[in-house]
Amino acid sequence: MTKLFEKLSRLSYPTILFIASCVTIACVLPLWIYIARQQTRLATKAMETIPLVEIVKPASTLSNRGEPTPMTGPVPLNPPTITRVYPWVGKVGDVIIIEGKNFGVYPKNRRLAVGGAVVEETSISDWQDSRIEALIPPDPQQGDTAAIRIDTHPIVESIPLVFYDETATVRLRKHPCIFVDCKRQAGNDCYSPTERKNNAFYPLSQRRNPFFASFG
């Protein structure tokens, strides 16, 4: 024993640190592996005891196509009012935004139509009390309006809109002798679309009624 102490006393300080590190690792590493295994076993047992519950959405939040739709909210007390629709020039599939008030937040018995077509619920991305965002449905015609009906409130319509067919071929040519006074010829508002009759431009004379105008 005395000789062992003498040999240890002759060792340099770095050698002593190296030996101490090796001993520490040799003792701590098995203990750390044992603790890690125990934690893994406890976590596995906990997962096995927790039952898996399948989450099913209420039927009222699914459309006829099985797609999720927002829950219906209350009907606003006052009738809706449309103050702005933009862009007022567009084509099928474009986003149309309707601004106003008293639209409600996804109220029940709501209808949105553009001209002769009702906009499907899956094409309405947002319906808030002062803003509705949707896609333009198929078969729009010049002079059609955006119309809203909520429950028993009267139907409200926007100003006539302009629609175009992106597949149509239009040939344009420059004519220096034609000048159109938009404000004078288009109903004095510079926003309504016009139609050409006898080389003159006038406000659109005919509009289609909303498709749901005959709803009960």
Written description of the protein model:
The protein has 216 residues and is α+β, with helices and mostly antiparallel strands. It has 3 helices and 12 strands, in the order ααββββββββββαββ. The protein has helices at residues 2-10, 13-49, 182-185, and strands at 81-86, 89-90, 95-101, 110-114, 117-118, 124-127, 131-135, 146-150, 156-157, 162-163, 194-197, 200-203. The strands form 4 sheets. Strands 1-3-7-6 form a 4-stranded antiparallel beta sheet, with no helix packed on it. The radius of gyration is 37 Å and the shape is rod-shaped. The model is unreliable at 46-65 and 182-192 (pLDDT under 50). Residues 80-140 form the IPT/TIG domain.
Radius of gyration: 37 Å
**Low-pLDDT regions:** 46-65, 182-192
Mean pLDDT: 71
What share of residues are in beta strands? 15-25%
For the terminal residues, how far apart are their CA atoms?
A: 108 Å
Q: Remind me, CATH topology of the largest domain? A: Immunoglobulin-like
Give a quick set of tags describing it.
alpha+beta; four-stranded antiparallel beta sheet; 2 domains; transmembrane; Immunoglobulin-like; 216 residues; rod-shaped; 3 helices; single chain
SSE map:
Layout: H1 2-10, H2 13-49, E1 81-86, E2 89-90, E3 95-101, E4 110-114, E5 117-118, E6 124-127, E7 131-135, E8 146-150, E9 156-157, E10 162-163, H3 182-185, E11 194-197, E12 200-203
Parallel strand pairs: 2-10
Antiparallel strand pairs: 1-3, 3-7, 4-5, 4-8, 6-7, 8-9, 11-12
